[in-house]
Write a structure and sequence with these properties.
The protein is α/β, with parallel strands linked by helices. It has three helices and 39 strands. 12% of the residues lie in helices and 28% in strands.
């Protein structure tokens, strides 16, 4: 279930009615009256959840799903387990997105409420600067400073002795102690996810959170997206420079270092002590082992084993890159000499 501190539960709704809203076809009879309360991925869905299948990489999850209903194409409807209702559609992911928006709604700060909501819990010794907005149910720990014009969304929890810079925006997040989030940072906005439908491209639901552990520093104007379903996690004592992009579902370990302009795509996993040079880019779903290093301006397309140093575009082990670069330089010089 999406975290109720951040999302309203708008269910349940009958499976047949939900299918009609989402543009799918449900079987008639008792199954169409089955109550559906939430959306969830195939592998994590329970009896009150609707899921979807559209990517053959997850075909193994289809026959074992515990979902009460699933948006699926006609070709794969027969592969669902007996207890799962097939909601047939040519565009399962788009149907899932429509269902998610019907069943879940992000909590917002009502504009008629005061800037610091009465239900917010602010410990003694916290400092709230001019123009800051603190949403309903938010929690601010002792010794934490919220900068001028910062926005702390509903349900956000910020630990003790933190610094939140001016004009920072934080939502859908749980933040530990001694965290420094500098000016203009955006934490917890929707990650980049889209679903293709016959009516055009539509946003895919982003129902996860951001977890920032103790001692993290996040530089000015960096963006950390909330998860699509699972959480985006920044590990303890990780240090992030200005103007960095961290996409949904990324998990960074402890004591990582990210220089300016690094871009990390969705669902990347990096272990403890990983270092990223400036302007490095990491493709989605890549795994990077403990202590690995990525040189500046590299483009990582493949997993990196623990302790290795990679560079280049596409990135490869540093020694290999240097050998290849030296060989190319030697060949280029030979050609130039021959031309004379």
């Amino acid at each position: 279930m999406p975290d109720p501190r951040f999302y309203e539960d708008l269910g349940p709704i009958a499976a047949g009615e939900l299918a009609a809203i989402a543009g799918a076809r449900a079987p008639k009879g008792e199954g169409a009256r089955r109550p559906i309360r939430l959306v969830a991925p195939l592998a994590r869905a329970g009896a009150e959840a609707v899921s979807f299948f559209s990517d053959r990489r997850y075909l193994a999850d289809l026959p074992g799903t515990g979902a009460g209903a699933c948006f699926v194409s006609e070709a794969h409807a027969g592969e669902l387990p007996a207890g799962c209702l097939a909601l047939v559609t040519p565009e399962p992911q788009a149907a899932y997105a429509r269902a998610a928006f019907r069943l879940h709604r992000a909590r917002r700060h009502d504009p008629s409420d005061p800037p610091v909501h009465p239900s917010a819990e602010i410990e003694e010794g916290a400092r709230i600067r001019h123009g800051a907005v603190i949403g309903p149910g938010a929690r601010i720990g002792r010794g934490t400073e919220i900068g001028a014009n910062a926005v702390i969304g509903p349900g956000v929890a910020i630990g003790r002795d933190c610094l939140i810079g001016a004009n920072a925006t934080i939502g859908f997040a749980l933040i530990g102690d001694r965290v420094r989030i500098l000016a203009g940072v955006v934490i917890g906005e929707a990650g980049f996810g889209v679903a293709v439908s016959r009516s055009g491209i539509m946003d895919a639901p982003q129902l996860g959170r951001v977890i920032i552990q103790d001692g993290v520093t996040i530089g000015a104007c960096t963006c950390v997206d909330r998860g699509a379903w699972d959480d985006t996690v920044i590990g303890e004592n990780t240090k992030i420079d200005n103007l960095v992009q961290i996409a949904h579902n990324v998990r960074l370990g402890r004591n990582c270092v990210l220089a300016g302009h690094v871009g990390i795509s969705g669902s990347v996993q990096a272990g403890d002590g990983v270092m990223f040079g400036g302007r490095a880019g990491i493709a989605d779903h890549v795994s990077i082992g403990d202590g690995a290093q990525v040189a500046a301006a590299s483009g990582v397309m493949h997993d990196i084993p623990a302790g290795e140093r990679w560079m280049g575009y596409p990135a490869k082990p540093m020694r290999r890159f240097m050998r290849e670069s030296a060989w190319l330089a030697k060949m280029a010089s030979a050609r130039e000499g021959g031309a004379d």
